[in-house]
Give the backbone structure.
Amino acid sequence: MLVLEPANSMYSYPSLDKVNLICNTTPLGIIAPLGFDFFLIAMCTVYAVKTRNVPENFNEAKFIGFTMYTTLVIWIAFVPIYFGSNSKVITMCLCISFSAIVALLLLFFPKIYIILFRPDKNNRSAFTTTKDVRCHIGRGYPTSAAAISRNS
């Protein structure tokens, strides 16, 4: 996008005693990068929906799904507000800040809650074994020389 529309600034005079230095860009310069971001958000949301019913061992998809649904709503609300208002910088900053806060809270708060307030659930067996899925790590037999000689 920088090749088609190089970075440039211009002065804006909203009143006689105020001057703003703003980016001189067309709507295409905003829509093209946001289009790619929307594509990534939409694909992540689609895969979060597809993987929401996996076994409990892999329940990270649920939190990713909540994060992506909320992020998608924030960015869909952002587009008309951004193009319909005069305070584009504030709108962009608020949208990015809300997206970051949502990601931080919805992805990491459940883990922090378990670490701080539910230490009984903070062990390896709570994350690796359920009645549906067993997680086997390694070759399934002892590897030490003593254990091998005992089995022979």
Observations:
- The longest helix spans residues 88-117.
- The chain is about 60% helix and 10% strand.
